[in-house]
Amino acid sequence: MGRCVLVAASVVAVLSRLLSPAYLLAQDGGAMHAPDFRAQQFLIALYIGAKPSAPFTATAKTVWVKIMPDDSTITTWNERTVARDMDGRIFQERRFLVPDNSKDKPGQRVLEYSDPLEHTFYNCDPNSKRCDLRNYFPAGIQPRTPEGLQPDGTTFLTRENLGVDTFEGLEVQRSRETFTYYKQTIGNTKTILRTVEYWYSPALGINVQVKRHDPRDGDQTLWLTNISLTPADAETFKVPADYQIFDLRAAQPLPRAPAEESR
Residue 120 — pLDDT band, cuts 50, 70, 90? Predict the structure, then answer.
């Protein structure tokens, strides 16, 4: 926990320096202004739950096409490894999005290890080789949002059954949801339609493909490819031996056993 405090303190120190009069006065050659930061957009990844007796490995791919006011587009993408074992343990890479025309492979950002039996979630930084350990309790089954006018009075939901199909050799159930945001209900001058299409695999208990269209966010396509139902090696679901673990439940580093450290 001490390291977290140091990191937070360093960020505060940098921001304090940026916002200080001394820093502002040092920037000559033009009109002064305080630092400014652009708004961030976020993309929600495919959800992978801890379903036992349904192991798989796959490559999760994402393509995000943002539509600009002049109808031009900005396209980014990534691909990452995901896996689940017989007991429902989950391993996921998280990688940065890169421009469509980039020759660079999406950089590795985070490694995640979820264990529904031990109720542990490790969020690991591959650069610093540090893992933050938190509690993990898989989300329960949530009731489906009913169709029709929503309680907020600003949106209307319709749902369509698109039938049974196959995807990467798996039987999937296809469906589409359309959210209507009426004019002048969320600050919008025109009605907004948001559509989401799902390719759901009952065998795996996850969506193997999702397509989202929203004029506020653009087009987001997320899907699994190279799906194998063969369980991954057990080491896939273990934190590497040379990573240091900080138990945020206990607010202190966890010692590693000598046998593990020597592997």
Answer: very high
